[in-house]
Amino acid sequence: MDGERLLSFCSNDYLGLANDARVLAAFKQGAERFGVGSGASHLVSGHGVAHHALEEELAAFVGTPRALLFSTGYMANLGVVSALLGRGDTAFEDKLNHASLIDAARLSGAAVKRYRHLDAARLKTLMETAQGEKLVLTDGVFSMDGDVAPLASLMELTRAHDARLLVDDAHGLGVLGEGGRGTFEHCGCQLEPAVILLGTLGKAFGTFGAFIAGDDDLIEFLIQSARSYVYTTALPPAVAEATRASLRIVQDEGWRRAALQERIAQFRRGAAQLGFKLLDSQTPIQPLILGDAGVAVQVSEALRQRGILVPAIRPPTVPAGGARLRISFCALHSVQHVERLLEALAVATPARA
Ligand SMILES: *Cc1c(COP(=O)(O)O)cnc(C)c1O
């Protein structure tokens, strides 16, 4: 930044694939073969062999019959929710859901009921009196707190109330589970027809775009009725080719997830020794709650002076009084990098309990 080299602890490139030589090579070859832009929407002529192959490989990876590419995760959420719900229906949202899930339900015209973070008992009460089609929406890994949705309870509730469940696993896919299949694998849950999985490709996959995974009926329905799928230019095919390369690495190189977990554990041990109170997160998202927005900005600035980049996250991105440093880790961080972060935090932060 401004000509200065900084050590970053704020990227969502959790596995370090955005700059991987194999992903870059696939991107270049994809551009040479297919050009830069896709030239049209999927339904007109923008959908090519690269998109198609990626969809098949993503479906096989997560274990669903089909997958459908969207240009971004934000658009995928808008598309799927407004296709499934309308006036007279009900959307249930965890209070800490990502903005795109909140906006998606609003756009659909359905009634929106928000339940306390992770509180399946509260959700049950709300579901008992709800009208119309019911859709429960949740992050798999919560983007600002790093904790994990109680998928088994949510699936049980949706079954009991003849509802559907949409899990946005933007921060879980590639990272959680032995095979990197995300929050479902982490929780030991199987995908089933009433469950819709959204994955994004701009985070652990290191590229760009998103997909919805589900059965044939769901995917065919979305191709006809998800407006953010139908009325937008298809992802550049070279991005699809790059993502195919990164998907292979996600599957083949389990050491990246193991290295990430080691750095997370190192940070949590060190931060606890320094007297920091951390949230209960086993994911690469490790928030350091500072409360006051001004304090968060000061600490972020003090880290920056020590060559470390962690921007302050302030309301309205997080609740009032919840300003924080959202520290995130990458498989390519070294032991020394994490030591540098801990040393800088020790001097940059105000007195701790
Ligand atoms: C990043 C993110 C999105 C948006 O994905 P993009 O591809 O960046 O539009 C959606 N949901 C969650 C939980 C996210 O963290």
List the helices and strands and how they pair.
Elements: E1 7-8, H1 21-34, H2 42-46, H3 49-62, E2 66-70, H4 73-84, E3 90-94, H5 99-108, E4 111-115, H6 120-128, E5 134-139, H7 151-160, E6 164-168, H8 183-187, E7 195-200, E8 210-214, H9 216-225, H10 227-230, H11 237-252, H12 254-273, E9 285-291, H13 293-305, E10 308-309, E11 312-313, E12 323-328, H14 335-348
Parallel strand pairs: 1-10, 3-4, 3-5, 5-6, 6-7
Antiparallel strand pairs: 2-8, 7-8, 9-12, 11-12
Helix pairs in contact: 1-11, 3-11, 4-5, 12-14, 13-14
Residues 72-74, 98, 100, 139, 143, 168, 170-171, 200, 202, 210 line the site of pyridoxal-5'-phosphate.
What report would you give on this structure?
The chain is an alpha/beta fold and 353 residues long. It folds into two domains: 21-252, Type I PLP-dependent aspartate aminotransferase-like (Major domain) (Aspartate Aminotransferase, domain 2, 3-Layer(aba) Sandwich); 254-348, Aspartate Aminotransferase, domain 1. Helix content is 44%, strand content 16%. The protein contains 14 helices and twelve strands. The protein has helices spanning 21-34, 42-46, 49-62, 73-84, 99-108, 120-128, 151-160, 183-187, 216-225, 227-230, 237-252, 254-273, 293-305, 335-348; strands at residues 7-8, 66-70, 90-94, 111-115, 134-139, 164-168, 195-200, 210-214, 285-291, 308-309, 312-313, 323-328. Strands 2-8-7-6-5-3-4 form a seven-stranded mixed β-sheet, with helices on both faces. The chain has a three-stranded antiparallel β-sheet with strand order 9-12-11. β6 (164-168), α8 (183-187) and β7 (195-200) form a beta-alpha-beta unit. The relative contact order is 0.17. The structure holds pyridoxal-5'-phosphate. Pyridoxal-5'-phosphate (PLP) is lined by residues 72-74, 98, 100, 139, 143, 168, 170-171, 200, 202, 210.
